[in-house]
């Protein structure tokens, strides 16, 4: 409830009403509550309307144009610095001033609403929600009927900007954890010290009241009764403070051990963990971003989103992201993985492909591991034919083991031959089978059979067992 002057005719009284928007706004913007005296905050303006003079009164002036401003004129509810900070917050929260303000943090999962500005036309960017959130600039379309400047998906951009902010704030996170430990210790000690001083004062009052009661003449019953009442009140106050100290000690948390302290420091250093915590809402993340960033300028050039992050301290950080191609969603598998699966499908069945991709550290588009079913679904989507037994023979290719058997050596020796360049072979990736042409193995075996040494060293000899 807030006090207000009664509006009833002839009644000079104060009534208590529920807080209204205008009432709260006037309190926050009136410098008198900050201990300042101001005069000339409004002005009047004369205009000609339909050939007649009209005077518009009550037009607010900027603070720099006030006629009189005396800070620390009287005791205020808040300091002048707090008042000025409130004016900045109110100005930034304004949503009806176009590009002049960032606007308050709105509902929605996208984090950069109000911070993004189009680098092509200079207007603020809008937020739209459909299947997924998008940022787009339609100021030119609204004002001039032209096409939109730029438009791009929001999830990828939010993730990149959030990671950059976390990287910049990581040292501050460690410092915040250290300060949290110090503040907790100081608050407990300060509260305990406050109660101890109050108890000391109360015990002094008890002793003083007892001395006064002992010194009074018993026949003076009125004085003795008053002193006894004061003595009892002092005793009651002392007992109450002692009880409060006992309750404070009972609520006092045990000092943090080494394990808890280490966990708190680790949480402060790992801001990404705190950022992605289930208890951290989108509103909390928006407040963190707005506290660190002043504005973000975004452009689209050559299939890339080029952004410049303007920090509150005045520094600037460039950030460049590749846009998704047309028809590609954020869960798309990288093109190199698609090519690898296409080539592996000619060498092995789906189950072996899944094992190989998992060993190679290539997840699915959603970050999951591969299974036989997922590989089959992936092949069907990309129209990749299933592996057929006998494909190797149709192409005239054999495995490393088969080549070693034809040459008459163990597979490890045949592998060393391939790495030396004596025998031609190819491997799609680490862990994939070696593919060797049968004609190359036959030619190599024929050459070695007719006396060509296995080594390029002419001094190398080999034994011929009969």
Name the features.
466 residues, alpha+beta, Multidrug-efflux Transporter Regulator, Chain: A, Domain 2, four-stranded mixed sheet, three-stranded antiparallel sheet, 15 strands, 16% strand
Topology summary:
Elements: E1 2-5, E2 14-17, H1 21-29, E3 37-39, E4 42-49, E5 52-60, E6 68-70, H2 80-93, E7 116-118, E8 126-129, E9 133-136, H3 139-144, E10 151-153, H4 154-215, H5 221-251, H6 258-269, H7 271-275, H8 282-292, E11 293-301, E12 304-311, E13 316-322, H9 335-344, H10 350-359, H11 372-381, H12 391-395, E14 397-398, H13 400-407, H14 411-420, E15 436-437, H15 438-449
Parallel strand pairs: 7-11
Antiparallel strand pairs: 1-2, 3-6, 4-5, 8-9, 9-10, 11-12, 12-13, 14-15
Helix pairs in contact: 4-5, 4-6, 10-11, 13-14
Give me the Rg, rounded: 40 Å
Q: Biggest sheet, strands in spatial order? A: 7-11-12-13
Instruction: Identify low-pLDDT runs.
Output: none
Instruction: Bin the strand percentage.
Output: 15-25%
Count of helix runs: 15
The shape, in one word, is elongated
How many runs of DSSP E, i.e. beta strands?
15
Order of helices and strands: EEHEEEEHEEEHEHHHHHEEEHHHHEHHEH
Instruction: Calculate the mean pLDDT score and round it.
Output: 82
Percent helix, as a range, is: 40-55%
Largest sheet: 4 strands, mixed
SS class: alpha+beta
**Amino- and carboxy-terminal Cα gap:** 110 Å
